[in-house]
Amino acid sequence: MLYIACVLMGWLNVYAAVYSPETQTNLFDMSTNAGKQLMWIGTTVLLIIAILVINYRFWDTFAFVIYGITILMLLLVLVAGSNIKGSRSWFKIGGFLLQPAEFAKLGTALALARYIDFPNVNLTKLKDQLWCAGIIALPALLIIASNETGSMLVFASFIIMLYREGLPGIYPLIAIVIVTLFILTLIVPKLILFGVILALAVLVFFLTPRYQRSVQNVLVIGITAVSMIAIVAGVDFFVNSVLQKHQQNRIKVLINPAADPLGAGWNVTQAKIAIGSGRLQGKGFLEGTQTKLDFVPEQSTDFIFCTIGEEHGFVGSAIVVSLFVFLLCRLVLLAEKQRTRFARVYGYSLAGIIFFHLMINIGMTIGLMPVIGIPLPFFSYGGSSLWSFSILLFIFLKLDSRRVGMFTR
Amino acid sequence: MIENRKYIVIGVFCLVGLVYLSRLFYLQILDDSYSLESSSNSIKRVIEIPHRGQIYDRNGKFMVYNTPVYDLYVTPKKVQIPDTAAFCHLLNLERTEFDSIMAAAKAYSYQKPSLFLRQLSKEDFARIQDALVDYRGFEHVTSSMRTYPAHTMANALGYVSEVSKKQLEEQETPYYRQGDYIGRSGLEEQYESVLRGQRGIKFVMQNVHGVVKGSWKNGAFDSLAIAGKNLYTGIDAEIQQYADTLMQNKVGSVVAIEPSTGQILCMVSAPTYDPNSLSSRFFSKSYSKLAKNPYKPLINRPVMASYRPGSTFKLIQALVALQDGAVSPGSIFSHAGSPMKCHCNRSGRLNLSGAVQYSCNPYFYHVFRRLLYNNAERNTFKASAMGLHHWHDMVAKFGIGQRLGIDLPSELKGSLPDAELYDKLYGERHWKFSTVYSLSIGEGELLISPLKMANVAAIVANRGWFYTPHIVSGIGKPGQGIDPKYLEKHDVGIDPQHFEVVAEGMQGAVEHGTTTMAANIPGITICGKTGTSQNKKGKDHSIFVAFAPRENPKIAIAVFVENAGWGGIAAASVASLVIEKYIKRRVDNHALDKKVKEANYLPAIVPPQKPAPKKFIEPPKDSVAKPMIVKTILQRSVPPVPAEAPSLASRPVTTNGN
């Protein structure tokens, strides 16, 4: 239709092109996967056409309906889903598996956009913050219930969008502080950490100009320090008592991969070996030994990036990472251009989700993130994820095309 | 303000992207440890063991070949055994054995197959193959096992077993790996590098479970296995087997050489064992049983045992004395002047041939005396030293006191004393002929292996030359590829005419002399010489060396029978039967054949004492003082038959004196 849409389509084609050979690689071991993936691609094209045909108003109007349907699916899967690898989060339809959690992202993004689009919503107000949190938390909790913690974490990505829409900066800051403390707790002995926090509090107190040392400010400093200590203590409890065994291991492995290279550290170690062995040029298409021969687990889904790293080397993996970053920036800039708040919020949500997937998925294969089983957008094998990302992206394109269309008309 | 947040968001995206790129840069470009690990991870070297070379006898009969056997492997993860008791019964296993094998397999890997049972024979495997269908997780791999169809010559052939830890550590170029087979003695050890062939290496890609997924780079780096070469030997399996039966219930050796080629015709070490017993999966059980046997059946006596040659050494003494000019064929010496006793009753009537024929001790006392003093030196001490030196050099040419260089490992040098030895023992110029005269009749500090004695017989048969005795006559193809040193003629430096004198005496010894009846085979002119090897620790050893026929000899032979008593009778009987069998391909003298087979010279085993002494290192200074009177053995006491030996009542052996 229009220039920008074409560019975006071009991007997609690049992904599709890179994408299908990647699955071809896995033909060696699971020929059915590639076959199925072709079918998924076919159906995805149909979906895309459908999305482009449907009036943009549809998404705006039925946002909450779609949200409701996804919530219903999440509930249903808890009852009627098939149990695969310990999580009850799949529908078995014929020979194929469908994961409603993937579509929950779409529903949530639409619902959030619709909510924030209400004219009087202000994200600096606690009531609206709570509403948003509720919209996000509902599917997230349902997903936790179905034992798919990885997908749940994706919902944290909405914070990026909320931040852009006026959420006070303190929230992401708190999030960052918590994550930092979390990591520090695992590395640094607790008592030292306590000491450092207290020292920081005292330091901040004395650095505060005397005239600003109101009771209120001192209280803020004190509460911050106490809550930080509480977080540190809480993290310890959380890691050792709340998390399941395999989750505990994954976090410990991140800190020290060499501790158990054949056990919990296996995935990460093998993934790093595969990527590391690619060197600059890679081993060449279909020449990967690590990934082809099952050393890397889940190499067609969650660890797909290993195949890129091994067979195409630094050049290939750098291109992929850059492409994603370029896409993300492009999405953000496009979102900024949207006339409607709905479209902008939705665009940011989309960027946030893709960013989060990218960060976690690639991060875990190169040992920077704990192993969390979420797919790499457009690359990983799996119909649900391909569908949901394509739908997510093309709804935004449709929204965007309307804007451009209006413009040219 | 809020509008600017898009830059923060974009900034975060780019920052994460940059962090990841630098991490990738580090992993893929800077740090090469991951790349190294990957190749050892997924590419596996698979060793292809080539067929080990087979061994043939001189008539093209198999001595050793490979039998296909089945190694049973188990993959613990896949194991399904409905009834363990029935399974153990099927495989002839104790439950405890089964448990320990399974435990070891599980400890190794659940995913990868480990060895469950080694070397199941074709028959065993056929028996269990059908039943094995009911049990999951077991698979078989064909391998091969050494098989010895002639059931003979175990000591010279050697055996094959797993390479030892020490060998693994000491190998110069790392070839063997844990669990590889290697030749451990005899020909298997000597020709290991030829027999084993060249191992092939295949690079295959394997997945995480060690399951092979095809060849790597289409086999560009693979090397094919090269089969081991066959060995063609000069052994006559039939003769070897026959000599085996003659040597049953005896300790000793039979070595026969084809004089014209130096090829060994048979090499018996008694007692022996069935080589097949060390080639099955019961190897360790059989081996420890053999190692504990007091008669030491694992020793290859023809090359690893040394004896005083006794009277058989007179052949060499006669030859070197003639060559030296110390005596002439017609020289006559009486018993007078010699401290040695004799039983020939022909004092002063014997020429050199006669002395050989009747094995006259005093005669050779005089011969040796002449030999040592056959120089210009007037001082008897100096003359003895000079004479002995000269004598040593001449005798050494017969291969005495050195390794002949047969193609077997662990050949012993034996001992040939020289002047330096006596200088050391007695002090320079403190010894002379009268100190060392026991050498004249093959006693004293002489130690000779049966192989060397057989070679001496071959030298006499050839009238002055020999090829280094060897078993293998062809590597890869018959008559090809052997070490050129076995094709090199060695001259012993004695004029051919002198040999006729000795041969005359040897023929006489068989026909009229010391061994009449025992060694005389109608229709074949056998030239032989008896000997007694004195043995302080028990009964003397019986020795006989011979060749036949006198003209154009076909076979030279040495037989040693330990503890068979004085005189060469026991040995001569064995030798003559072997000669008859070899030349006529049949044995007519059934009575002798029966008598020899039934004779039992196994020494009694007294636990703390060494049962069968084979080496006499300590030089007996009083060897001459020993009585050498005629001993007619009328009745042998029945020695206790050890549990390992078949029970065989010993029969009285009579000698007809000599």
Automatic annotation (TrEMBL), chain A:
GO terms for cellular component: cell division site; plasma membrane. Keywords: Cell shape, Membrane, Transmembrane, Transmembrane helix. Its main location: membrane. One of its GO terms (biological process) is regulation of cell shape. Coiled coil: none annotated. It is found in: Membrane. GO terms for molecular function: lipid-linked peptidoglycan transporter activity. The chain crosses the membrane at residues 40-58, 65-84, 130-161, 173-206, 218-239, 314-333, 345-372, 378-399. It comes from the Bacteria. It is a multi-pass membrane protein. This is Cell wall polymerase. It comes from Larkinella knui.
Automatic annotation (TrEMBL), chain B:
InterPro entries: Beta-lactam/transpept, Beta-lactam/transpept-like, PBP_dimer, PBP_dimer_sf, PCN-bd_Tpept, Penicillin-binding_protein_2. It comes from the Bacteria. It holds the Pfam family Transpeptidase. GO terms for cellular component: plasma membrane. One of its GO terms (molecular function) is peptidoglycan L,D-transpeptidase activity. It is found in: Cell membrane; Membrane. Residues 639-658 are annotated as: Disordered. GO terms for biological process: cell wall organization; peptidoglycan biosynthetic process; proteolysis; regulation of cell shape. The chain crosses the membrane at residues 7-26. It is a single-pass membrane protein. This is Penicillin-binding protein 2. It comes from Larkinella knui. The lineage of its organism: Bacteria, Pseudomonadati, Bacteroidota, Cytophagia, Cytophagales. The gene is mrdA.
